[in-house]
């Protein structure tokens, strides 16, 4: 055996030893296409809504079936979003390492994967939950892929406002999974998330405004003054808290949710007011603290929906 042949055999053995890691990397790349961290936040809103709709514990199977279907639907929409925005992702530091721009997954493979799991999600929900939930999931996919990604994101600074409708759909899906229909309580929960989305996302867009500007995406913090952005954040926060409180008179919730809605709403409102005051003083960067509001918005939504989940089981 020559030295070259020996090296070839040794390299082949090493490559073979890396095969399991390569398979793992491929799997993780496809999982990354679904944006699991965003889906995690969406599912946090689905299960408490199901508890409220059922007035207690729905069946474990119904929860599992709804969660899996919801994950597939959101994952399919997110994958198609990454496919359509691969040119933007390649230009932004925050997103250039995503599976498609990094070359881990080809655009064609991502497109096929996104369409496939979107179809599977509709069939899964329709056959194992109900067809109302399936129709709502299909609507969410179309809203996110067509309405937000294809029509709004590159054309208007209000893209996240109206595109955020897709992110509100899990509460309707969760409610309909239990009841087979949609009630006013579910609509108000929908509005909570609808009005929550701008003060949640715009601080993130403020932090990465240079990236968005370089990619040609007209996020509001890129094209409008910080004063204008802060004013709109205050308006949406007020409407969000009002929507959360409007659920209480319907009689579907008790004191646990009421206390959480008032307390968390007041706390997050203070964060946004403080942010607006910093804008007025001309602060920028870390001194402005946009990520404090971003992370605070996640805490607010988590507290509100955890209280919503606990509420049916606590009585005075």
Q: How many separate domains?
A: 2
User: How does the helix and strand content classify structurally?
Assistant: mainly alpha
Q: How many helices in DSSP terms?
A: 15
> Can you give the mean pLDDT?
91
N-to-C terminal Cα separation, in Å? 84 Å
Provide the fold topology:
Elements: H1 3-33, H2 36-54, H3 60-84, H4 86-91, H5 107-128, H6 131-152, H7 159-163, H8 165-179, H9 184-207, H10 209-215, H11 220-223, H12 226-246, H13 255-280, H14 285-288, H15 290-310
Helix pairs in contact: 2-3, 2-8, 2-15, 3-5, 3-6, 5-6, 6-8, 8-9, 9-12, 9-15, 12-13, 13-15
Question: If you had to describe this structure to a student in words, what would you say it looks like?
Answer:
The chain has helices spanning 3-33, 36-54, 60-84, 86-91, 107-128, 131-152, 159-163, 165-179, 184-207, 209-215, 220-223, 226-246, 255-280, 285-288, 290-310. The chain has two domains: 30-180, Orthogonal Bundle (Tetracycline Repressor, domain 2); 183-316, Four Helix Bundle (Hemerythrin (Met), subunit A). Helix content is 80%, strand content 0%. It has 15 helices and no strands. It has 316 residues and is mainly alpha-helical. Helix 2 packs antiparallel against helix 3, helix 6 (131-152) runs antiparallel to helix 8 (165-179) and helix 9 (184-207) runs antiparallel to helix 15. The longest helix has 31 residues, at 3-33.
């Amino acid at each position: 055996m020559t030295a070259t042949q020996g090296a070839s055999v040794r390299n082949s053995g090493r490559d073979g030893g890396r095969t399991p890691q390569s398979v793992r990397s491929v799997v993780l790349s496809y999982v990354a296409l679904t944006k699991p961290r965003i889906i995690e936040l969406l599912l946090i809103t689905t299960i408490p809504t199901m508890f409220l709709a059922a007035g207690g514990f729905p069946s474990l199977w119904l929860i599992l079936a709804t969660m899996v279907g919801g994950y597939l639907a959101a994952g399919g929409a997110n994958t198609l979003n990454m496919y359509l925005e691969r040119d933007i992702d390649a230009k932004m530091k925050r997103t250039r390492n995503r599976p498609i721009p990094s070359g881990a997954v080809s655009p064609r493979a991502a497109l096929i994967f996104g369409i496939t799991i979107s179809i599977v999600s509709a069939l899964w929900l329709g056959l194992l939950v109900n067809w109302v939930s399936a129709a709502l999931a299909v609507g969410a996919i179309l809203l996110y892929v067509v309405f937000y990604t294809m029509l709004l994101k590159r054309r208007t600074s209000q893209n996240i406002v109206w595109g955020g409708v897709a992110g509100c759909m899990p509460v309707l899906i969760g409610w309909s999974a239990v009841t087979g229909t949609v009630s006013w309580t579910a609509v108000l929960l929908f509005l909570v998330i609808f009005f929550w989305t701008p003060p949640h996302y715009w601080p993130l867009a403020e932090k990465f405004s240079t990236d968005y500007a370089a990619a040609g995406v007209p996020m509001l913090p890129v094209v409008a003054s910080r004063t204008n952005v802060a004013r709109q954040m205050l308006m949406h926060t007020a409407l969000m808290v009002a929507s959360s409180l409007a659920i209480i008179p319907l009689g579907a919730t008790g004191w646990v949710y009421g206390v959480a809605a008032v307390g968390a709403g007041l706390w997050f409102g203070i964060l946004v007011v403080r942010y607006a005051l910093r804008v007025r003083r001309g602060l920028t960067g870390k001194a402005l603290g946009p990520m404090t509001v971003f992370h605070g918005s996640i805490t607010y939504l988590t507290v509100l929906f955890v209280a919503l989940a606990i509420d049916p089981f606590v009585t005075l």
